[in-house]
Structures are given as structure tokens and as C-alpha cells.
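Exercise 7b. C-alpha cells:
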């Protein structure tokens, strides 16, 4: 047993020029719901076991190269259908990485606000 506290992902904050559009995208993608709005910020409450998204109005120019992105995981064999669903909701397909390592395949996409995220499938047992 360790004294280190368990840390989980509660929410991700995203800045955008169109908060309603981005909040609707993330609610549909994650199975969450838009649960509140204050001063132009929209809160997408994630489903049980998932994560939430705080969508804020952008206050300055968008960064040319984002410092981070989300890696979302789906069960083995579900990546292609989930990528297609994300694209149907407004994501843009960027690239696939299918053979860099043997235990994971992923697709990188951009949400309607331009934020990169990946949908990955890990081999069973990983």
C-alpha cells in the first residue's frame, strides 16, 4: 500500500471561439450533457466514469502548436467506428498511426475548435 493519493482526470478545460459548438461536440462524443453556463463558459458533465469538459471563450490568439492533447481509449476493434462517429459529429481526421508499436493503434483528430485528440485501441490484455 502506498501513501500516494489516487489521481483521476476530472475535467479538461478548452478555449475556443465558439463555446456552444465545441460543448455540443464534446457532449455528444463523450455521452455527457451540457450542465451549466456562466459568463460564456459551458460545462459538459461527463458520464459516470468519464471526464467533464469546461469550454471557455478564447481570450487571445489560438496557439500555433498546442502543448498537449487528449488520448482517448476504446476497446480493441472499435477505433474505426468511433473515429467515424467523431468525424460525423464535426471532428477532422488528421492521421493514423497503425504500426508504430504492436500494442496500440491510434487516430489523431481535431475537434471543431482545432484541439487535437487521439482515439486509440490497445491490444487485448494491455
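Sequence design result:
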Amino acid at each position: 500500500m502506498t501513501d500516494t493519493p489516487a489521481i483521476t482526470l476530472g475535467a479538461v478545460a478548452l478555449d475556443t471561439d465558439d463555446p456552444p459548438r465545441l460543448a455540443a461536440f464534446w457532449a455528444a462524443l463523450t455521452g455527457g450533457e451540457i450542465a451549466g453556463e456562466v459568463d460564456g463558459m459551458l460545462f459538459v458533465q461527463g458520464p459516470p466514469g468519464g471526464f467533464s469538459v469546461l469550454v471557455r471563450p478564447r481570450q487571445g490568439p489560438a496557439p500555433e502548436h498546442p502543448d498537449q492533447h487528449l488520448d482517448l481509449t476504446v476497446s480493441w476493434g472499435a477505433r474505426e467506428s468511433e473515429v467515424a462517429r467523431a468525424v460525423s459529429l464535426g471532428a477532422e481526421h488528421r492521421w493514423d498511426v497503425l504500426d508504430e508499436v504492436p500494442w496500440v493503434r491510434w487516430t489523431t483528430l481535431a475537434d471543431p475548435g482545432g484541439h487535437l485528440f487521439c482515439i486509440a485501441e490497445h491490444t487485448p490484455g494491455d
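Instructor comment: The chain has a mean pLDDT of 92. Residues 10-58 form a domain with the Signal recognition particle alu RNA binding heterodimer, srp9/1 fold (CATH 3.30.720.120).
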